[in-house]
Amino acid sequence: MTGQAKIEQLFLKQFNYQNAVVCHAPGRVNIIGDHTDYNDGFVLPAAINYGTTIAAAKRDDDIIRVYAHDCEQQVDQFKLSEIEFEPHLMWSNYVRGTLKVLMEHGAQIGGADIAVTGNVPQGAGLSSSASFEVAILKTFATLYQLELSGIVAAQLGQQAENEFVGCNCGIMDQLISAMGKDQHAMMLDCKDLSFEDAPIPQGLSLFIVNSNVKRGLVDSEYNLRRQQCEQVAKYFGVPALRDVTLAQLQGAQADIDDALFKRARHVISENIRVKAALSALKSSDIATLSRLMKASHQSLRDDFEVTTKELDGLVQIIDNEIGLSGGVRMTGGGFGGCVVAIVPTSMIEQLTTTVIRQYPLEYGLKPSIYLCHASQGAFRA
Ligand code: GLA
Ligand 1: which residue has its CA nearest to atom 11? Predict the structure, then answer.
């Protein structure tokens, strides 16, 4: 059964009628550029062929009924005029928050019946929540014929997450879910939201491995890192670390606390690596991309301190196999979750065997492997 047929059937079973519209928004993997987005910096993600799919139909009142097929408590109902945070139904807050900010933005919407299913693993750093927010926005844009650009949709999704759900994330995840391009990664400038698509070179695949480490302290540590970056920007009297150079940072080392210095060094050097990685991708210079991804991982491990021993180990296992013919690093916020590798498609079988054999031996955990290709965002024409 196709994804479309499955969600239509779920909708019919839940609501007892048909004729729903079907919308989809992808998750993402970040090839390079982590913890740079909220510093007004550069990122290089791709949307992936895992995402959130929704079937929905308009109602004549202002009631929202939602059926979330993959969640334990599957059903929620609320009125658009009375949207509150629901502490006992976390998944529903993505719907509630997104619709609240959409209405505050001035969109004229009414009620809807909604069925949702998704296959982005939750808590793995592949943006299941951003794909959910963007899928809801795409659904309402379709049902109520809203003129919503991909950039505005991404901003609304981020706003819902920051102001309603309570996670202080940057814009990368929502933007790539909305605006990703088939077979391409995207270099995004998070300061002015300009972007450039970069083709994934022929013969290479995105090989993603979930360490399956239960992520702890993600929100608190994430927010702490963000504050530390803001503190250094403040020291230099600039809005964000994007505006500080490595030379300036080094010149002020004696004045800056050691941990803060390292956080800033990661962000500033990562921005340089993202731009270099874009050139490497565009010229199919995989050896250079490989070195940049390795340096990014080391910087996230030693300076930003967001990796785990399992992520470091997985990177090592994959790096030993691929050498300079591909690149590998942790991806996303860190503290568990996934590593991303960009590897020759011809090596995938061998790589899969090695990871499945070696990772459990060394770390006592089973890896999950996702073979991905860069996919189209929900708002990309
Ligand atoms: C999470 C956030 C993003 C970004 C990454 C780290 O995925 O949602 O905005 O900050 O972490 O690069």
Answer: 333
**Residue 138 belongs to domain with CATH number:** 3.30.230.10
pLDDT above 60 for 217? no
**Helix, strand, or coil (residue 8):** helix
Q: What is the pLDDT of residues 160-205, one digit of tens each?
A: 999 999 888 999 999 999 999 999 999 999 999 999 999 999 999 9
Q: Residue 102's domain spans which residues?
A: 3-199
The domain tally of the chain equals 1
Residue 349 lies in a domain: no
173 is a catalytic site residue? yes
Ligand 1 atom nearest 37 alpha carbon: 10
CB atoms inside a 10 Å sphere around CB 161: 25
Q: What is the pLDDT of residues 19-38, one digit of tens each?
A: 999 999 999 999 999 999 99
Distance, in Å, from the CA atom of 47 to the CA atom of 29, rounded to the nearest integer, reads 6
- For residue 214, being part of any structural domain is answered with no
Question: Considering the domain boundaries, does residue 239 fall inside one?
Answer: no
Q: Best substitution site from 28, 34, 131, 331 to test ligand 1's pocket, by max atoms within 8 Å of Cβ? A: 34
C-alpha 136/C-alpha 130 separation (Å) is 10
Indicate whether 182 belongs to any domain.
Answer: yes
Contact 209, 314 (CB under 8 A): yes
Q: Compute, in angstroms, the gap from residue 69 CA to the centroid of ligand 1.
A: 26
